[in-house]
């Protein structure tokens, strides 16, 4: 995360393979959605300057295809969808305008249209954009209200897409390895009990921190409760302003107990990186 004179610029990674860089004074994250089966995410964003048109930008990232559709073929498929608008008829809505040709906005191929609800006389804009490559399969959908043309919303997307980047599996593997190699995780028995743990008697209290100076954002520390057949259950602890995280552990076992945890940082591309660590304590 970095800061500029105009505001705060952040990199937001969207699993499994893309990121967006944007100024948080101009764009805000509204909602996150996740698919744990396919390990993918999608996010809703909104421009902070918009108060009347209810602009929303939904970004959905998907696993890349082994043999992605060539760009010329993607464009043809989208152009065929445009052809369907010529015969559009619906008693409830009126087609106000639509793209006659596929637009290229940044690295994305896009088509847009505006429909008017005949009952409320309200215009609804939809712009659908795709980026399909060996690295990713990304879909972006912009929606808004009360527009008479598509141009203002395309200008929003043009700026938003300037921060787009897709990553190959090789790039992500290298990035993860470099991020994890930066830090050695230390677990020290806590000398004092912090306020949050005053009711957790009989537990082991410790401080988790990195030996090296943090150059990435520390998000949290996870202590594993159970781990079975790929299913992980953890207790989450949040860090203080000094980059230290106080944890509390209990166990039904007596004697020397070994625990596993994850030191979770947000790296330079905005991706959550879980650095595993192990520690032992005596449970009397």
Output the structural class: mainly beta
At the first level of CATH, what is the class of the largest domain?
Alpha Beta
Q: Supply the CATH architecture of the largest domain.
A: 3-Layer(aba) Sandwich
Counted beta strands:
19
Instruction: Describe the global form.
Output: elongated
How many individual helices?
3
CATH level-3 fold name of the largest domain: Protein Transport Mog1p, Chain A
Beta-strand fraction estimate:
over 45%
Give me the Rg, rounded.
24 Å
Assign a percent range to the helix content: 10-25%
CA-to-CA gap between the ends? Answer: 43 Å
> What is the ordering of alpha helices and beta strands?
EEEEEEHEEEEEHEHEEEEEEE
Q: Quaternary arrangement of the chains shown?
A: single chain
As residue ranges, the low-confidence spans are: 1-6
Instruction: Tell me the domain tally.
Output: 2
Largest sheet: 8 strands, antiparallel
- Summarize model confidence as the mean pLDDT: 93
How would you characterize this protein structure?
This protein is 13% helix and 50% strand. The protein is mostly beta strands. It folds into 2 domains: 2-167, 3-Layer(aba) Sandwich (Protein Transport Mog1p, Chain A); 174-283, Sandwich (Immunoglobulin-like), CATH 2.60.40.1930. Strands 4, 5, 6, 7, 8, 9, 10 and 11 form an 8-stranded antiparallel beta sheet that branches. Strands 1-2-3-12 form a 4-stranded antiparallel beta sheet, with no helix packed on it. A hairpin with a 2-residue loop joins strand 15 and strand 16 (231-237). The protein is elongated, with a radius of gyration of 24 Å. Residues 1-6 have low confidence and may be disordered.
């Amino acid at each position: 995360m970095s800061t500029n004179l105009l505001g705060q610029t952040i990199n937001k990674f969207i699993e499994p393979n893309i990121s967006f860089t944007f100024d948080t004074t101009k764009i805000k994250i509204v909602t996150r959605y996740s698919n744990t089966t396919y390990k993918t995410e999608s996010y809703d964003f909104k421009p902070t300057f918009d108060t009347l048109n209810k602009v929303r930008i939904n970004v959905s990232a998907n696993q890349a295809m082994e043999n992605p559709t060539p760009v010329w073929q993607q464009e043809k498929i989208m152009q065929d969808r445009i052809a369907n608008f010529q015969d559009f008829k619906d008693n409830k809505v009126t087609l106000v305008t639509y793209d006659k040709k596929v637009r290229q906005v940044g690295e994305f191929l896009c088509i847009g249209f505006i429909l008017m609800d005949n009952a409320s006389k309200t215009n609804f804009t939809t712009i659908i954009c795709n980026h399909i490559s060996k690295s990713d399969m990304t879909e972006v959908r912009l929606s808004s209200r009360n527009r008479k043309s598509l141009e203002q919303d395309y200008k929003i997307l043009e700026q938003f897409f300037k921060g787009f980047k897709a990553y190959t599996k090789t790039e992500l593997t290298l990035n993860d390895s470099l991020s994890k190699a930066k830090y050695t995780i230390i677990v020290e028995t806590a000398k004092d009990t912090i306020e949050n743990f005053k009711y957790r008697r009989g537990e082991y209290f410790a401080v988790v921190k990195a030996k090296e100076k943090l150059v990435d954002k520390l998000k949290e520390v996870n202590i594993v409760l159970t781990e079975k057949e790929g299913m992980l259950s953890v207790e989450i602890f949040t860090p203080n302003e000094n980059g230290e995280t106080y944890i509390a552990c209990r166990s039904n076992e007596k004697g020397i107990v070994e625990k596993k945890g994850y030191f979770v940082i947000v790296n330079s591309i905005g991706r959550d990186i879980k650095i595993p660590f192990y520690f032992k304590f005596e449970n009397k």
